[in-house]
Amino acid sequence: MSVPDAIPPSVAILGAGSMGGAILQGVVAAGGAREVVVTNRTAAKARALAGMPGVTSLALEDDPTANVRAAASADIVLVGVKPAMVPDLLREIAPALRAGAVVVSLAAGVTLATFARELGPDRAVVRSMPNTPALVGKAVTGLAPGDRVSATQRAQVRALFDTCGSVIEVPESGIDALSTISGSGPAYVFLLVEALTSAAEEKGFVREDARRMAEQTFIGAAALLEASGEDPAELRRRVTSPKGTTERAVTVLQEADLPRLFGRATDAALARARELAAGG
Questions:
Q1: Are 65 and 136 in the same domain?
Q2: Domain containing 214: what range?
């Protein structure tokens, strides 16, 4: 869902890689910003984005001050560089930021406290955690606004991320936990598709057909879940005829205690997120 009227007229994306690029596509498609300035390290990457309507694409390779120029032009500044590069970038752009600008972190593991230390305690900062389906407009993005973010700024940032999927607001203490579900979640789904594909191959299907069956089953089931609005447990019950083949298969899966297995997996991811936040 997009709310382009709520997006401010100027947006900067510093480091328009895969995630920043996905958000860029969402904003441009929604027509929500009059001006978007993006930066990349290389001229080749900058050229690839230069043809998008309303987008000014800058390369650090050509202009070492590109990040400062972009940040100075925007009401919302998205920081999409690698986590280790964030502190240096923040120190570089801090003097150039507009008085009312809000800075949004796309960097995993970089806390609001880090942004406050480098930008000053009065700067409006939002920590975000999108996931890779942003590339197809189906992201789940967690947002954790800092104390200095106004209601208007909060609405603007939310509208920005609404252009590439769904948004969930959480306190910063919930961002790492959210990352273990929606952030890492696509990998879990891809792993399940891999496993179902392998099961189909073991039953004699060629790789192409096995993959098509597995992928389209997941895609179709997800589309049905979204379109119906039904609880997934109810949809599962409708597919599972008493004493039928699906019931037998589901029984085997339930014996594996999937809730406990996913609990262990997400607990492991959360422990690692906390290690990374602590510099481990």
A1: yes
A2: 185-276
Instruction: Judge whether 80 is annotated as a binding position.
Output: no
Is 252 in the same domain as 216? yes
Please tell me whether 210 is known to bind a ligand: no
Longest pairwise C-alpha distance within the chain = 69
* 220 marked as binding residue: no
Return the C-alpha torsion angle 261, 131, 141, 35, nearest 10: 180
State pTM to two decimals.
Answer: 0.89
Considering the domain architecture, whether residues 211 and 268 belong to the same structural domain is answered as yes
> Position of tokens 């209601």?
151
Which sign does the torsion angle of CA 98, 54, 48, 18 carry? Answer: positive
Burial label, 254 (beta-carbon count in 10 A; 0-12, 13-18, 19+)? exposed
Q: Is 67 annotated as a binding residue?
A: yes
pLDDT tens for the chain, residues 1 to 280: 444 557 777 999 999 888 888 888 888 887 767 789 999 999 999 998 988 888 999 999 999 999 999 999 999 999 999 988 999 999 999 999 999 999 999 988 889 999 999 999 999 999 999 998 988 889 999 999 999 999 999 999 999 999 889 999 999 999 999 999 999 999 999 999 999 999 999 999 999 999 999 999 999 999 999 999 999 999 999 999 999 999 999 999 999 999 999 999 999 999 988 887 777 6
**Cα 182 from Cα 85, distance rounded (Å):** 24
Q: Is 14 annotated as a binding residue?
A: yes
- Number of folded domains that form the chain: 2
